[in-house]
Specification:
Layout: E1 3-7, H1 11-23, E2 28-33, H2 45-50, H3 66-69, E3 73-76, E4 79-83, E5 88-91, E6 96-98, E7 101-104, E8 108-110, E9 123-124, H4 129-138, E10 144-148, H5 152-163, E11 167-171, H6 184-196, E12 200-202, E13 207-211, E14 216-220, E15 225-228, E16 230-233, E17 237-239, E18 255-256, E19 268-270, E20 275-279, E21 284-286, H7 291-309, E22 324-329, E23 332-338, E24 347-353, E25 358-365, E26 368-375, H8 381-390, H9 397-403, H10 408-416, H11 420-430
Parallel strand pairs: 1-2, 1-7, 2-3, 7-19, 9-16, 10-11, 10-16, 11-12, 18-20
Antiparallel strand pairs: 4-5, 5-6, 8-17, 13-14, 14-15, 20-21, 22-23, 23-26, 24-25, 25-26
Length: about 425
């Protein structure tokens, strides 16, 4: 009987297991996860901290016995190593598991910055339910909280902390907030918005050391020393693939995959935050750590695991991944898609309304929108994604957008859906 082994019990692992079971009712499926709770969504943790949901609200499936009811075996352990040549996986529990097909879906883990005292009591990441429980005890109303990092994940955490009524300071080593998602103007607008909401922000600043005690003493590179009841390290995440060293499975930032999500080793696949897949917009492989991508990658990988096990051609293909970020920062919506920083030789248009807290930036290569970002202009988010992901040829509409970038909806309807008459009707209405 075929044995499908899945490493990682997050969204990618669970969706892959369910897909396998749906199409192979009699195969053996084993799901390995290293946390004691039922599979859950890390993206739900901020809502848990806000008090909007309980712990069970983070679970990926309503029933704790969902996977067992489907005949999917769960093993609670971490992975020590994978030996692809012998199709063997060693676990921290001492078990050794053999497989016919393997899915690597172990996601990401928080970056551990090399800061003296970062392991002190009262310093936490915000990545697991265990972290959330510890933070909830310390992040009480009026408590002093210092957060290291103002990237995408950091801003989501900040939203939850602000809702708890803490006195919050955010320290970001970049020259602006969300520096991997926004340019200087947009990042500065987000900072202004956050500070107006009562959050203290230091950019271009590093945490130099943390001294244990109650309160913690946090020394910053700007010369300040802050007292904190809680320090949250949100310095980013990286694919959790250290156990693949010497496995024979090729990795760069993540596990390298082809359009079938197969690695360089036949029968071994990867999906989710640890997979490095082809980005059709940039033309290179990227790790796109968002749940919709993880879900689609898991589905494609599972179907191809079945095909491989049955000796059939692998027909399921990943259409590609794109850098997608949509963020709510204390009520201010921002978004970025694709190559938002532009490409050599490309064209660019930018529109900023500081008074209205709105910013729009479009990047073109030839007549294709290859990247964009926005702050405050929520009505454009869907069409920006559609134009970038669809690599839609804009023709004359590109010149229109260079002059009037807010006409994105008309450009999308005219070019992506072939409704060129629609824009003319709109123009007629304006007259």
């Amino acid at each position: 009987m075929t044995h499908h082994l899945i490493l990682g019990a997050g969204p990618a692992g669970v969706i892959a297991a369910e897909t396998l079971r749906k199409h192979a009712p009699h195969d053996t499926i084993t799901l390995v996860g290293d946390e004691p709770e039922p599979p859950y969504s890390r993206m739900a943790i901020p809502y848990l901290l806000m008090g909007n949901i309980g712990e069970s609200g983070t679970y990926l499936r309503k029933s704790a016995s969902h996977l067992a009811d489907m005949g999917i075996k769960q093993v609670s352990a971490s992975v020590v190593y994978v030996h692809a040549a012998t199709k063997n996986v060693a676990l921290s529990s001492g078990q050794a598991l053999n497989y016919d097909t393997l899915l690597v879906a172990t996601g990401s883990h928080p970056v551990h910055p090399p800061i003296p005292g970062i392991d002190s009591e009262g310093v936490h990441t915000c990545w697991t339910l265990e972290d959330a429980r510890a933070i909830a005890k310390l992040a009480t109303k009026g408590g002093r909280v210092l957060q290291l990092g103002a990237g995408f994940i950091g801003c989501i955490i900040m939203e939850a902390l602000a809702a708890r009524g803490v006195k919050l300071t955010v320290v970001e080593m970049g020259d602006r907030m969300v520096p991997r998602m926004m340019g200087p103007t947009a990042g500065g607008m987000i900072r202004d918005w956050v500070e107006a909401k009562g959050v203290e922000v230091f950019t271009s600043t590093k945490v130099e050391s943390v001294t244990a005690g109650k309160p913690l003493q946090v020394k910053l590179s700007n010369g300040k020393t802050m007292e904190a009841d809680l320090v949250i390290s949100a310095a980013g995440v990286r694919p959790a693939i250290g156990y693949l060293k010497d496995s024979g499975i090729a990795c760069l930032l993540g596990v390298l995959t082809d359009e079938h999500l197969q690695t360089n080793v036949p029968g071994v696949f990867a999906a989710g935050d640890c997979a490095e897949a082809f980005d059709k917009v940039s033309g290179r492989t990227i790790v796109s750590a968002i749940q919709p991508n993880a879900a689609e990658q898991a589905r494609v990988a599972a179907l191809n695991m079945l095909a491989f096990a049955q000796g059939k051609p692998m027909s399921a293909q990943l259409k590609g991944v794109t850098q997608i970020n949509v963020l709510d920062t204390l009520g201010l919506i921002s978004a970025s898609f694709g190559d938002w920083q532009g490409r050599p030789g490309g064209e660019h248009v930018e529109l900023t309304d500081q008074a209205a807290q709105r910013h729009l930036s479009l990047q073109f290569q030839d007549d294709v929108l290859v990247g964009c970002n926005s702050v405050g202009w929520t009505q454009h988010v869907g069409v920006m994604r559609g134009l970038v992901e669809g690599q839609v040829r804009l023709g004359e509409w590109k010149d229109t957008l260079l002059k009037e970038p807010t006409r994105l909806m008309e450009a999308y309807l005219a070019c992506a859906q072939g409704q060129s008459g629609w824009s003319g009707a709109q123009d007629a209405r304006r007259r």
